[in-house]
Amino acid sequence: MKTNQLTSFSDLPKSYSKLCETFLPRPIHDRVGYENTVEVADKLAGFEDLMTAGQNDYFDLLCDLIEKYETQQIPPTNLKAGELLRHLAEENQLSGVAIARALGKSDQLARLILRGKRSITAEHAINLGKYFGIRPDAFLA
């Protein structure tokens, strides 16, 4: 990926084809592809009023790819927030310590959340969403 030389919106090419030469959008199949696509989209985010038509089309495509991947990565919606976290922890073979790191909180709090003794707050949901690469609101159900 050639995006490491692009540090801001002004560094981005103006045309769709030049943007594709920098980072060719592809279907996202794994976390690395997801993170790379999000990295490029983040450079465009917030500049919609300044974008050329090509940049706007490119940004829309990246957002569509990201949304599709995130939608596919969220387990069935009938899971409550704590059940979702337990499911993801089991699926990814994560310990309570790893969940604590993902939360940015103590091991004790992670264990309480995993046991259903504590609720997941909005801050926790944001951190977990970033960690697992899914929408934070999935943890607020």
From TrEMBL:
Lineage, opening ranks: Bacteria, Pseudomonadati, Verrucomicrobiota, Verrucomicrobiia, Verrucomicrobiales
UniProt xrefs under InterPro entries: Cro/C1-type_HTH (IPR001387), Lambda_DNA-bd_dom_sf (IPR010982)
Source organism superkingdom: Bacteria
Domain HTH cro/C1-type: 85-139
UniProt-recorded Gene Ontology molecular function terms: DNA binding
TM stretches of this protein: none
CDD domains: HTH_XRE
Protein name: HTH cro/C1-type domain-containing protein
Species per Swiss-Prot/TrEMBL record: Rubritalea profundi
PROSITE patterns per record: HTH_CROC1
